[in-house]
Amino acid sequence: KSIVSKININMFQPWQKRLMKEIQLLVTEPPKGVQLLEPSLTSDLRSLNITLYGAPNTLYDGEHFELQFQFNEHYPFHCPQVTFIGDNIPIHPHVYSNGHICLSTLSDDWTPALSISAICLSILSMLSSCKKKERPRDNAIYVKTCNKNPNKTQWWFHVDNNCGRNLEEIICNGDNKILSLKNNNENDSISDYYKFLRQNFIKESTMYKVNGDYLEKKIFFNVKCEYQYRLFNLKVQEIYIIMAKKQYDLLFKLLLIGDSGVGKTCILYRFSDDAFNTHFISTIGIDFKIKTIELGGKKVKLQIWDTAGQERAMGIMLVYDITNARSFDNIQKWLRNIQEHASEDVVVMLLGTKCDMADRRVISRERGQQLAIEHNIRFMETSAKANINIDEAFYDLAGAILSKQPSRAENDQLKLRSTDQESSSKSGCC
Question: Where are the compositionally biased (Basic and acidic residues) regions (predicted)?
Fold first, then answer.
């Protein structure tokens, strides 16, 4: 019997329950090249080790490396500490000899949407794209003077000139080369980034009388690393998409919208990870989760977005806070937004949050129901904190979308009818 199956989760905190789900998935459906070392797993889930196997036809083919993960109660809102350990630390321009890894996913670009599997695949992708085995150029001084926290290891500490074009070619072409990089990446900030670095290094040259040619190389190294990093991020995103393409019958894209602070992200994480965070953190940018459920005898993958994009959604949860009258008043504005931008057959559900806070309620259940009836949309009250009606709301919305989906037989008939019409139109006399 596996160690994972013996762990008692009844006394676990939400962050440990989230971790346990990830660990169970690693045991039952491990990504290729990733193996959990169960004996390393502590009973409180604060530490575990994973073996990574070098991909075939890469510089690390036939090799294996050990990763150590260390978690605390702030997970998944804070990134775990991840380092290579043991006698075989991979020799790579992004990996220091003490096991620290230069990967922004493990520091500034961490998001709670990531997971243990995602981290492992990011590191495997980094290893697979290596052109030459060598340590970062500043390895000796970094290992001697670095911060002991591996999360402080930044990707720009080192220079990797084994990827991309020759440095001298980049320097000779100057601004035109950076402009070319910018155009290839379709991101205007590359040019701005280059200008910013140039201005700062000019100041540095004046203050310390540093050799100008060295400064130019330093500028271009930084810009090139920025460009390569963004391309690497795109590659990792492609891997996530491949990961998501497991067997399922239907894919439903759902959207959570409503005023800031009403609890959209809490709903998202309670449903996907059975986790709840008591501290409010405003969602910046895009957040999404994927969860597969059994519905009507089919495997239905729910892709749930906490962001804009009504025109692509099949179902929308319109969220207000029952303790905040303004958030309820603004529902009319959100409904107009849906009417203007969403597809005609989108399924909408009105969702009142924080129904466990009866003493602070200002919007009655009846008012919510009446508004839903007026607009012919679904209605439910929920609490992410008390886990009330969260699963029920998503299943109800997904069920309503499923009922609108044509059966396979109907699809075949439509295709056949379309083919017959096309054939008859082509069979007329000239």
Answer: 410-420
Lowest mean pLDDT among 10-24, 81-95, 284-298, 412-426: 412-426
Better-scored residue on pLDDT, 30 or 420? 30
Bridge partners (DSSP) listed for residue 195:
none
**96 and 42 within one domain:** yes
Q: On the CB side of 345, how many CA atoms lie within 13 Å of its CA?
A: 10
Task: Tell me what pLDDT residue 211 has.
Answer: 46
Structural domain boundaries, residue 222: 164-245
> Angle CA(117)–CA(119)–CA(123) in degrees, nearest 5?
115
Q: Which of 214, 50, 21 is nearest to 122 (CA)?
A: 50
Beta-carbon contacts of 284 under 8 Å, excluding residues fewer than 6 positions away, are none
Q: For residues 62 and 54, is the Cβ–Cβ distance under 8 A?
A: yes
Q: Which helix (H) or strand (E) holds 359?
A: none
Boundary (domain end) residue, out of 160, 185, 213: 160
Residues 79 and 111 in one domain: yes
418 in a domain, yes or no?
no
Q: How far is CA 68 from CA 51, 116, 393, in A?
A: 9, 11, 38
Sort 96 into a burial class: Cβ within 10 Å, 0-12 / 13-18 / 19+. buried
Query: Domains in the chain: how many in total?
Result: 3
Based on the fold, state whether residues 312 and 384 are members of the same structural domain: yes
Adjacent-strand bridge partners of 351 = 319, 380
